[in-house]
Design goal:
- Chains A, B: Belongs to the aspartokinase family.
- Chains A, B: It is an enzyme of class 2 (transferase).
- Chains A, B: It catalyses: L-aspartate + ATP = 4-phospho-L-aspartate + ADP.
- Chains A, B: Residues 278-353, 359-429 form the ACT domain.
- The structure is a homodimer.
- By secondary structure, the first copy, chain A, is of the alpha/beta class.
- Chain A has a domain at 3-258: Carbamate kinase (3-Layer(aba) Sandwich).
- Chain A is built from 13 helices and 22 strands.
- An eight-stranded mixed β-sheet of chain A has the order 3-6-2-1-9-12-13-11, sandwiched between helices. In chain A, strands 14-19-21-20 form a four-stranded antiparallel β-sheet, sandwiched between helices.
- In chain A, strand 4 and strand 5 (117-120) form a beta hairpin.
- The longest helix of chain A has 16 residues, at 16-31.
- The radius of gyration of chain A is 23 Å and the shape is globular.
- The two termini of chain A are 30 Å apart.
- In chain A, 50% of the residues are buried.
- The A-B interface holds A 16, 19-20, 23, 50, 53-54, 56-58, 60-61, 63, 65-66, 68-70, 72-73, 76, 79-80, 82-84, 86-88, 90-91, 95-98, 100, 102-103, 147-149 and B 16, 19-20, 23, 50, 53-54, 56-58, 60-61, 63, 65-66, 68-70, 72-73, 76, 79-80, 82-84, 86-88, 90-91, 95-98, 100, 102-103, 147-149.
Amino acid sequence: MALIVHKYGGTSMGSTERIRNVAKRVAKWARAGHQMVVVPSAMSGETNRLLGLAKELSPAQQTPAMLRELDMIACTGEQVSVGLLSLALQAEGMDAISYNGWQVPVKTDSSYTKARIQSIDDARVRADLAAGKVVVITGFQGIDEDHNVTTLGRGGSDTSAVAIAAALKAAECLIYTDVDGVYTTDPRVVPEARRLHTVSFEEMLEMASLGSKVLQIRSVEFAGKYRVPLRVLSSFTPWDINIDEEAKSGTLITFEEDEKMEQAVVSGIAFNRDEAKVTVMGVPDKPGIAYQILGDVAEANIDVDVIIQNVSHDGKTDFSFTVHRNDFQRTMDLLKNKVAPATGAATVLGDPKICKVSIVGIGMRSHVGVASKMFRTLSEEGINIQMITTSEIKTSVVIDEKYMELAVRALHKAFDLDADNSPVAENMS
Amino acid sequence: MALIVHKYGGTSMGSTERIRNVAKRVAKWARAGHQMVVVPSAMSGETNRLLGLAKELSPAQQTPAMLRELDMIACTGEQVSVGLLSLALQAEGMDAISYNGWQVPVKTDSSYTKARIQSIDDARVRADLAAGKVVVITGFQGIDEDHNVTTLGRGGSDTSAVAIAAALKAAECLIYTDVDGVYTTDPRVVPEARRLHTVSFEEMLEMASLGSKVLQIRSVEFAGKYRVPLRVLSSFTPWDINIDEEAKSGTLITFEEDEKMEQAVVSGIAFNRDEAKVTVMGVPDKPGIAYQILGDVAEANIDVDVIIQNVSHDGKTDFSFTVHRNDFQRTMDLLKNKVAPATGAATVLGDPKICKVSIVGIGMRSHVGVASKMFRTLSEEGINIQMITTSEIKTSVVIDEKYMELAVRALHKAFDLDADNSPVAENMS
């Protein structure tokens, strides 16, 4: 007997048959006495189809006016989904009603294609829930103060669901997806990878941003900020699975430090092979140099991940960072033709064939020697470390991409993540 | 230098290539100095695709809650169209902006799937036009007072365009469609059919409802009520056709009686072979009998077209009407099992193999003998007339469907519509 938010991804909504299964699952929860709010994504492939049409007409799409139209077009996929899911729920005998973001309303800023949620009015939804209705709300969409339609960016439906759960003070937000939870690492790389029963939201933040792409990173931030209990679970279990069993499945993202005290030092191994590294060699070590280099990069709309600058020699330093591999050539051109001449840098080096491997764990905070164990493990496998960055709960290294699988498997084993009877994880089924 | 509304049908919006042509045509009008508002339909096939998905999930679709969801789903096709057309206009260098019905807003009642427009706020659109923008507004859509999305029913985009033109006091509303105007009759039946340069809106009403399905009937009513000059023209002329030539093409629907005084007595021949006739024989001729029969029919959601009741004999009368052929069997069952027992009718007869042929012309008002000429023409062709109804500007007969083409051709010739050099019409090109 609680207020529960369910979020279903595009695959779960991929056909009328699947939508019918979503409706049956939601109806099961409603019949168990819960107040239900459902946030479905667009049917899989739909957003890409719509943006493909847009791209044919407007290959550039840079001005705010163009981005406004992209949002107008893209958000229709979610609108179709809420209508179809409401019809399916009604066919199940539920009193269901759908809303667009603007009807709730979910208010955002005006940053088309990547808007941020500012506030959610819960009055209309609460009234419907009190009247016994199942409320189906579009993910991804919002409305700005001038009544323009906005979207939250790709994967924004996760954030919508968490934000709605926060506004309604929901007991739990369940994210149904095509994986059955958060794993210690990618099971395709390490068959021994195990599903975590719980993971702290800080760990989840690091895992998500580092490549375990289960949840949109902003949704986790949102959940952390508003302390929304968030569960990732599979939408491929039969809809009529026992509800108590279902309610405990997947991975729960928690906010309680003390729950985690017994946990392993390292919770998971994340990795990312979509990056490339670039280094500006021999730039004068003076105030403003980092901004001088990265300002131009940011202006060219190139996202930067890892940034490393070590101590200088003879008033010169080397400045390294990683970018998405698709941006590698553009970044190199920019650095060679603009940044190097302007800063007086000696050389620009780059390598697109790298990967980033990270160990993540809230337990690292209080355990010394975790990083050194990581470096020793890699050394024993003969893997050279090119770059190192650390934060409180993760340590990342950049290595040659050909060693990625080897590094991930070795680290997974070294930090005992393969173990059969960990208190917090179980074998993959 | 005028405020002009363009409306483009689904075929004109059927692909990105066609949308690009629409944008070029609109840009041409804008560059000629006109303030432009454009109302596009959904891409052809899109509304049917969406409603097909809905039907898979909800075969019934009768309750207001279900109809609300249908509108939520169906109206997305128009939203995609306005976004795509705006992008295409921007690619042409225009400053274009799109709006959904709810953003204007176009306020309607809450009759989902067949809402009626109640008011249109022109402030936002006027401000955009004053700022030099091309404004692209969804057809078909509205919003009710509780901020629910509504649609105006199939073909409602014509009505949206005319209503928006009325609200903005546009100089002219141009309906671009896949025919190049209104014809004296269907050219597929009578190759000699000619395009009318002008037609009165009363004639257009009769033509539209009788089967010359060029425009949604409600849009013509709206145009008549608010005196919006309405032009039907082809979207298949090259987009770069001379604008003065284009502005005079197609058929103009007029409201000025005196302009029509020189016109032919009969403007066109309409026909419809989708109907079936039913007769309830020998019902008591007493007050309330018509309601007793048709009340049950209306309650079963069966639309009735022609209704005929002649004088009675011996206190009994025969009551005939026509329904859509798809409703024929359902109507017969209803009459036999429910209406006949309740009213004491002797028999129920029906025939689905009929058609309706009508002559339409505002000139009929002041010319006697038009109906008799019609009957004589049919008689000379050996065609038996089964039912007759008349109004001020049309005379309709119901005949055996096998004579339809023969009747239409004979009438087209008899009323001189074939003539080569009529002052108001030209040969089909």
